[in-house]
Amino acid sequence: MRYEGALYRPPSEAYSLIIQATIGCSHNKCTFCSMYKGKQFRIRNTEEIIEDLALGRNHYKNVTRIFLADGDALTIKTEELVKILKFIKETFPECERVGVYGSPKSILNKTSEELSLLKSLGLGIIYLGIESGSDKILKAINKGVNSKEIIEAGRKVVDSDIELSVTLISGIGGKENSLEHGIESARVINEIKPNYVGLLTLLVEEGTPLYEDVESGRFQLLTPKEVLFETKNLVERLQVENCIFRSNHASNYISLRGTLMKDKDLILSQIEEGLKLSRLEDKDLFRRL
Ligand code: SF4
């Protein structure tokens, strides 16, 4: 396959055929993120994307999922996405789901009719990085959107019947805004009612503006126990039915998984158990990164 630079995909797309439809991230300005820093954002020609899909067809027999990378494939014009999805339907009749990362802005730039059309052609899931529901934190991390826009974008996906998977980042508000992060993130999730909520835990990478803030003392990282308190604070406030909650990324200190609301008490008791673990005093020992 022809790939440009490092590839990122959601954990649930681990077994998907990954095709780069865009290169990099259309925003590329979040203070904590280094994923696409070396890439100038661009949308690939539809012909090239289709060539890559054809190459994939030659290599792989049973392709049930396809993920269109990189950062924001939903920003591609609908007419071009239609060509890509139609080619996938014809070439991979066994494909059950096509997934993309979608930024709030690229979702808001699509009409509800466009999203429904993409759904009818096989777009089955959109991954939306919310990071935090707090406007204060969204501004501080330079996310480029506020919570109102995130809610509007999320609702638009849910209403179009495309599955929506959102991610939050534990610790993204630092010590100062940890309480606000939990409260406001729960508010946003409760309004959107996504199908999946995933929690990552903040990893500070060298070369990012956030790294400099940590080094200078302007941003204070949470301890593992504070991360769990923040998670507890968030989960206690979640009121969303049939939503799969996951905190089982390698960046997390403990692994949590359940379906809200039925498993909410179970998840909370797992957090309580986690809070008793003395091993969490060592912040790097139990992360798998
Ligand atoms: S966090 Fe997402 S939107 Fe922000 S720069 Fe990174 S890839 Fe782009």
Structural commentary:
An eight-stranded mixed β-sheet has the order 1-4-5-6-7-8-9-10. It has helices spanning 46-59, 78-91, 104-108, 112-120, 135-140, 147-159, 178-192, 209-216, 224-237, 264-275; strands spanning 17-20, 22-23, 42-43, 65-69, 97-101, 123-131, 163-170, 196-201, 243-247, 256-260. The mean pLDDT is 94. Helix 1 runs parallel beside helix 2 (78-91) and helix 9 (224-237) packs antiparallel against helix 10. The two termini are 27 Å apart. With 289 residues, it is an alpha/beta fold. Helix content is 38%, strand content 18%. The radius of gyration is 19 Å and the shape is globular. The structure holds iron/sulfur cluster. The site of iron/sulfur cluster (SF4) has 11 residues, from loops. This is Radical SAM protein.
Strands of the largest sheet, in order across it?
1-4-5-6-7-8-9-10
> What would you call the shape?
globular
CATH fold node name: TIM Barrel
Characterize the main sheet: 8 strands, mixed
Helix/strand-derived class? Answer: alpha/beta
The overall number of domains is: 1
CATH class: Alpha Beta
SSE arrangement, N to C? EEEHEHEHHEHHEHEHHEEH
Sheet-strand content, in percent, reads 15-25%
Which ligands, by name, code or SMILES, are bound?
iron/sulfur cluster
Domain Radical SAM core: 9-246
Protein name: Radical SAM protein
Cofactor: [4Fe-4S] cluster
Keywords: Iron, Iron-sulfur, Metal-binding, S-adenosyl-L-methionine
